[in-house]
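Sequence, structure tokens reproduced for reference:
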Amino acid sequence: MPRLTLIVPAYNVQGYIGECLDSVLQQDFTDFEIIGIDDCSPDGSGAILDTYAERDARIRVLHLTENVGLGRARNAGIDEATGDYLLFLDSDDTLAPGSLAAIAARLDATDDPDVLIYDYTRTYWDGRLLRNKRAELLDESGPAVFSLADRPQLLDLLQIVWNKAYHRDFVARHGFRFPPGYYEDAPWTYSSLISARSIAVLDRSCVLYRQRREGGNILRTVSRKHFDVFDQYDRVFAYLDSRPDLDVWRPALFRKMVDHFLTVLEKPGRLPKNTRAEFFHRAAKEYRSRLPEGFERPLGGRGYKYALLGLDSYPALVGVTRVNNVRNRAQLGGRARAGRAKRAALGMFYKSQLHMPLDENLAVFSAYWGRGYSCNPAAIEAELGRLAPDVRRVWAVRSEHRDRVPKGVDTVVVGSREYWSVMARAKYLTNNVNFGDTVIKREGQIHLQTHHGTPLKTMGLDQAQFPASTSMDMEKLLSRCDRWDYSLSANRFSTTVWERVYPCRYTSLETGYPRNDVLLNSTAADVSRARHELGLADGSTAFLYAPTHREYQKSFTPRLDLPRLAEELGPDVTLLVRGHYFYKPTGRLADLQASGRIIDVSAHGNVEQLYLAADALVTDYSSAMFDYANLDRPIVIYADDWDTYRAVRGTYFDLMAEPPGAVATSQEELTSVLGSQDWRSQRSAGLRKAFRERYCDFDDGRAAERVVRRVFLGEQTLLPVVPLAERTPAPSPAEALSAAGRS
């Protein structure tokens, strides 16, 4: 039997569950088991649990056939537990390093108490950490083991289940179970604490309690479900009634009940406005029926609210609240004035257009900060033209990039009068980055964020951990992300990252990347055409070299001696270089470019055509590897500065341990890999196969159609995804040449 059992229910937490499990599996204490409960989650949480269970035998997964809620999901985990102690961990929270070892050591030192209480720290999206304000109650001085009667002030801690370890025999002996509904922790925590014969404390912050910016906390959801709090305290007092020996706790639990009722009333964003009076009257009824004899109300304003409950005087409570709200309204008014000033700065024209009706048949597209016609927005725009030709499609581009838009595509220049008009009135706004801060999201507009790559490097809020790589204002970033209605994902890995690092209220669409449709749908003729347009000779080998940007370098530094590489690989090899303006035709480089041995494709407007033309991709940490993997062609990683890049920019996985193909860390190694058969060896193919299985979930050639049908046509059911094994990528250049010979 393990020493500890951690029970981790999961529901709609695919962006967080991996980090939660990692925080447990990376502990230096290893004598534990994890019971993961998939509470019939509609997202990928269950699949993520299964993936972890396949890797680590200490994890067992229960898949519930219906959604039963947090409390009953925990009960399912209790039934499967075998450890000496039960620990409950919410799936969007994490354990601090060393926590399990500290908990186990304290349990040993206190001779296995019924309950061990430890501390927690609130963690915020902006990086702030705030330890429990009542941490002093966990002072370890004094007797190591005690009952609640010795330290009754422990009831003033936030009564949650996940900051305690419970002896499993103690739980079984008393038959403790979690009830359904909101506030399910109350009956469990109060009943267990007053029943425990032996309690110990650990003055250490073990749980990192994530304060999610958006979603994830049902207690911040406006709903009648908050009336469940009455049922929960009915259970608390029913337990007390069944145990006359515990009646001494009645006044204390009455106080906790009343404080809880007032908290629900006073916290914004819980009760629907038209139910507040009803809730108050129900609370007043509970107050009067459970008032202990001789109970003394608290002093001050809190005690006055107790008295109002006793009198069932809701109008008086409203009057008290109104006084407090005057200050709050003044603060809100200041923010509103700032907002009005910002809107005024947009100009009278934009302001007037915002009051015009939305054009239900107008869609605005943009990509890469207005730099042209490309990426996912371009693929979606083309598919929209096919499926809904009545929708007018307009591209927002900067004036210096208008020549990068194909002829026949309607454009507006960013910042122009026409731009503000379409931005104010278009029903649909699509971009692979964020629109500018001055764009106002109108009610009724639909904002589609397509992203422009699978994240190897850290993104969004995670970038705050690597300040050398960004000076981004995270609050402004999330304000921009608040405009999103939909967020596209090419794979489940991306979904889990986006939902965590952009914690806003959007719907994730696991459609695949529309820009990659061409990689699945192109024919041998398309591949041949792409090569001929680049001047590639039939039978020659073309390596596409596409390095990524490095934030830690103020200016571009070439990572390869291109002339030397081209000469050493020989005349039958062409390097397609999608790099930086640094690669200007000087000296020997100019000669090789003139002969076609090196082709600068940096300004090529359609990277997918370059993918089709290339026999293999050579890259470092660019997201190009995830897209190119859909072709099932060789990928070579040139990682001469991996340790530096990972330390400065941060990455989500170890590319050296999970590469999509052969790896080189010096130019000499790269020359050897490309000059031999290593780049297309069986080992490289095996690495690519595993990589494709991890990151090519949804790209099956119908991503654009899925997006258009869901977002623009309103169809609720996405087209099914063709399994990876059944997909047929575009033929390789060799296959295309063979097909041309047969024809």
User: Anything to note?
Assistant: The chain has a mean pLDDT of 90. The two ends are 68 Å apart (CA to CA).
